[in-house]
Amino acid sequence: MGGTLSLSKYSIGVGDRFAHQAKPQLHACRMAAEQGVEVIPVWNKSNREHTIIGSSPASTRAAADEAVRTLGWTKPYYVDADHINLETVDNFMEACDFFTIDVADMIGRPSQAAPLRAFVEGHAELLGELLIPGVAHPFHIDRDFMVQVANKYLAAVQEAGLIYRRVEEKKGKGQFITEVSMDETDSPQTPAELLIVLAAVAEEGIPIQTIAPKFSGRFDKGVDYVGDLAKFTEEFSNDVAAIAFAVRHYGMSSNLKLSVHSGSDKFSLYGPIHRTLKELDAGVHLKTAGTTWLEELIGLAEAGGEGLDLAKEIYDQAYSHREELCAPYAAVINIDPAQLPAPESVGGWSSEQFVSALRHDPKSSAYNTSLRQLLHVGFKVAASMGTRYLDLLSAMETTIAKNVTGNLFDRHLKPLFIGE
Ligand SMILES: [Zn+2]
Q1: 65 C-alpha vs ligand 1 centroid, how far in Å?
Q2: Which of 295, 218, 335 shows the shortest CA–CA distance to 17?
Q3: How far is the CA of 261 from the centre of ligand 1 (A)?
């Protein structure tokens, strides 16, 4: 083992539900590198996804290693134990070198009185009018607000500390990247709250290199952002400034950056984020979750024949199991059942019709967000098909790979990291 692992300025968390697309994903990162922009790939898969697919973190690791070998990638890459907690972390220990510690469930659990008091008393520097470079309006943090925020997050941060130390004990200090995520919770964190949380994380001694707050607006699965863009942009840039403040004042990792858990495809945010990163000379980690699986479906449908038939069959089953498929994601999907075409009519579709309904091209009138979201959560259907699905992935690899690479490069890496 060498020195301390350090996450580069730009990194992308790519999801790959069935562990078949690591190569086309890495190919997209190579295309960015060829344009002079280093974007480090991180293969992420949560415990929930592994459970549904019936896979293990070792398979994610094997696919990533193989892609790296085949493409001759010499820059860093990581395998992320995504959204782990104390119960699930052990299963990821061996295969992963990136740990996203999820403490969302602990947010709001009241803190004990003594640590709460000590924290509030120890952070008088945050009280009053805090003018942070890069922030237009000073943060107003009074004692009551501080107590309220600390009471909401302190227990969660302490839990993150427990998880971090458990990983550190097994993997060794500096031998893995640490992220803390707070995105899967009800209410967004304001930049002032983020700053208080960062102070707590620093005090807990967790050397995070990236942190995922919940931003305001809707981040539904597989479709674009719904919310006030100007407000998001201000919030994002204030978060970046809050991080810079925490790095200076609390000695946090100098490469500390925001992690945007996008639920995939927040295209309208990429321009504003790109401009903010340039302006403030900041980095970002973007998690794109599971649209790779949708590109597999697009590739199958585009290939026609058996591929198209299978794509239709998956839609048919997803349609009839809509409620159970959607239930776990209720907070992050927004499907209008009236917009879902009947499976009988999809049965008569051509490749082009299927592809254009599913492909995330906001400018296309055939694009159907409800159908896309249903299929997004419908990976369970494909998982239940086992080798039948996987064998077709291999048979139609070329068409699928083209879609996976094109999607990741053209619609994500380019607008976010390179700029259009
Ligand atoms: Zn997340």
Answers
A1: 24
A2: 295
A3: 5
**What are the CA-CA distances from residue 418 to residues 10, 33, 225, 274, 284 (Å)?**
10, 10, 20, 8, 13
Residue 357 CA to residue 60 CA, distance in Å, equals 30
Centre of ligand 1 to C-alpha 266, Å, is: 14
Give distance in angstroms: CA of 104 to centre of ligand 1: 10
Average pLDDT over the chain, rounded to an integer: 94
Measured in Å, residue 44 CA sits from the centre of ligand 1 at 10
| 82 Cα: distance to centroid of ligand 1 (angstroms) | 8
* Per-residue pLDDT, 2: 55
Give dist(CA 51, CA 154) in Å, integer: 30
Instruction: Please report the sign of the dihedral spanned by the C-alpha atoms of residue 408, residue 413, residue 416, residue 420.
Output: negative
Centre of ligand 1 to C-alpha 343, Å, is 32
Instruction: Give the number of other Cβ atoms within 10 Å of residue 341's Cβ.
Output: 16
What is the distance in A from the centroid of ligand 1 to the CA of 185? 9
pLDDT 10s digits, 311-320: 999 999 999 9
How confident is the model over 231-244, as pLDDT tens digits? 999 999 999 999 99
Q: Which residue, 215, 193, 9, is CA-closest to 201?
A: 193
pLDDT in tens, 259-310: 999 878 899 999 999 999 999 999 999 998 768 999 999 999 999 999 999 9
Q: For residue 259, give the 3-state DSSP assignment.
A: strand
